[in-house]
Amino acid sequence: MARYAIGVPVTCAQCGARLPRPLPGPGRLPVYCTPACRQKAYRARGGRASGTTGGQRARHAKRSAEDTP
User: Fold this and answer.
1) Total domain count for the chain?
2) For residue 3, is it within any domain?
3) How far is the CA of 31 from the CAs of 27, 37, 44, 55, 59, in angstroms?
4) Does residue 50 lie within any of the structural domains?
């Protein structure tokens, strides 16, 4: 039984390239064509590579919480 169904994406969510056929068996269907595209999408969503470190974000969040009445 094929895991592709109507409405299942067949192109990479990041670059639009055609996705490779998924392996047979249970599991998630692929969303990205390569780990590089997965990383680019993560960064685009504001992941850790957004230019600040975790410590900087924590200090900013603490300052924002202290300023809010």
Assistant:
1) 1
2) no
3) 12, 9, 15, 31, 34
4) yes
Give the per-residue pLDDT at 55.
60
List beta partners, residue 11: 18
Q: Answer whether residue 39 is part of any domain.
A: yes
Could you tell me if residue 27 is left (phi over 0), alpha (psi between -120 and 50 degrees) or otherwise beta? left
Q: What is the pLDDT of residues 16-40, one digit of tens each?
A: 999 988 778 888 888 999 999 999 9
Q: Is residue 45 part of a domain?
A: yes
Q: Which residues contact 45 (CB under 8 A, 6 or more apart)?
A: none
Contact predicate 18/10, CB 8 Å: yes
Name the nearest CA neighbour of 9 among 26, 25, 33: 33
Token pair 């067949």 is found at 10
Entry pTM? 0.55
Query: What's the domain range around 19?
Result: 8-69
